[in-house]
Amino acid sequence: MKLLCFAHLSEQLGTSSMELELGPISVADFMAELKNRYPALLLDHVMIAVNEQFVESSYVIAPNDTVALLPPVSGG
To answer: Architecture of domain 2-70 in CATH?
Structure first.
C-alpha cells in the first residue's frame, strides 16, 4: 500500500510517501503497526483517509490502497 504523510509526519519520517508491504489490515491495526515501526512518530489526533475518503478505525485497508495521514491543521 502507498502511504502519504503531511506536515510534521513527513518531517519525522524524512519522506512524504512510502510503500508498505501489508496485507488487508484495519485502520486501528495499521496505526498500531506504524507506532511499532516508528515509535517517535506523533500520531495523536491524526485523521486517516483511504483512497481520498476519510475512514473509521474499523475500516479494512486493502494492500493496493493509498493511505493518507493528515495531522490536525491550525488556522488563524
So the answer is: Roll (3.10)
